[in-house]
Design goal:
Layout: H1 2-11, E1 25-27, E2 33-39, H2 45-53, H3 68-81, E3 91-100, H4 101-107, E4 113-117, E5 130-132, H5 134-137, H6 140-162, H7 167-170, E6 179-187, H8 188-198, H9 205-221, H10 232-235
Helix pairs in contact: 2-3, 8-9
Length: about 250
């Protein structure tokens, strides 16, 4: 089987002796970059005004005259009651770079959100760039095999491009570990749900890392909304996966 694979690579023009290792990699998500680049002005005042509107004879445009102290208390109260529909009025936009396609396949399953992702069809990806899982990165032999495999993939990707195969077809051989960039916009209520699922210790390590970084960002600008945000064991005192061996399993 190994001989057949090597023969296939030679037919495609790959010769390990004639190709320099230009592979770069991202280990443990350490190069993942997450930045909050935009959010609704007055991110906590707006939902507090919406909450007050539901129990007030005042017109929406007059609610802005309410003191900041009163609005903050209103927001704290509705959050404690779990009446989170009002925080849908606040949205956050993140710029996320150098994450794997494996991560973004999971991320876009969160449907109440807007996404814009780097295209493998229009962007030249001839320079190797990929994420290395921690369990592979810390094992010398595994990492060597992983890096060699990635080197082979990118050499063949570039070979296909040189043969005139369009990028939209050549990209089919790129791995799930290939790095990508994406912009994401979510409202605060969707983010709370996202954090419950992805901050969980049993979530896949890379998207858990992303979720924790995103949570740290929004806490800076909306501390009341996200004060108790996190996995379900923290927010609801339950474990949806019933993982009783988890150190954070609700007592």
């Amino acid at each position: 089987m190994k001989r057949n694979f090597i023969a296939f690579l030679k037919v495609c023009g790959f010769n390990s002796k004639n190709n320099k290792n230009r592979v770069s990699y991202v280990g443990k998500g350490s190069f993942m970059n997450v930045k909050l680049i935009g959010f609704t002005p007055n991110p906590e005042k707006i939902p507090a005004m919406a909450a007050k509107l539901t129990h007030s004879k005042s017109k929406p445009e007059d609610l802005g005259k309410t003191s900041d102290k009163e609005l903050k208390n209103i927001l704290k109260q509705v959050m404690s009651f779990g009446h989170t529909s009002v925080i849908e009025h606040t949205c956050f936009t993140f710029a996320i770079s150098d994450v794997s396609r494996s991560l973004t396949h999971q991320l876009v399953r969160h449907r109440i959100a807007s996404y814009a992702q780097q295209s493998q069809r229009y962007v030249n990806l001839n320079e190797p760039n990929y994420v290395t899982p921690p369990k592979i990165a810390k094992n010398k032999n595994m990492k060597k095999a992983y890096d060699e495999t990635m080197k082979i993939i990118w050499n063949q990707y570039n070979k296909l491009l040189e043969m005139g195969i369009p990028a939209e077809d050549s990209r089919f051989i790129l791995p799930n570990g290939a790095c990508t960039n994406i912009m994401v916009t979510m409202n605060a209520r969707s983010l709370l749900n996202f954090f419950e699922l992805r901050c969980c210790l049993h979530a896949q390590w890379e998207i858990r890392n992303l979720a924790n970084k995103m949570l740290a960002e929004v806490k800076k600008v909306a501390p009341t909304i996200f004060k108790d945000a996190g996995p379900a064991c923290k927010t609801k005192k339950i474990c949806p996966e019933n993982k009783k061996d988890c150190p954070f399993y609700p007592k």
